[in-house]
Write a structure and sequence with these properties.
Length: 122
Amino acid sequence: MLEGFKKFIMRGNVLDLAVGVIIGGAFGAIVNSLVADIINPLIGMIFGAPDFSAIKLGALNIGKFLNAVVSFLMVAFALYFFVVTPMNKLQEMSKKNEPEPAPAAPPEDIVLLREIRDALKK
């Protein structure tokens, strides 16, 4: 039983997932700081601090939900424009510098069929 557990834990995808979660948590702190310390103050200087927490519909606190939605959208905006877009540009630039891959040789049966076709044409 312990041998099966050991095999499960030592599988490559489990370790990759664990590393991804840890790196994701650390990266999340960077994105949250970008939003909280840079983007929110800029928005506050331009439009005033957006705070919907006072909005209520009976017993439902709609304002806190709206704050969460706005916060999510700001994090998504920051992540897309400050991380995803620059990474896509870097990948495009690196692909331009790579030589074109040589075309793969056709399989042997295709070569044989082409030879037969050419022989029949003659």
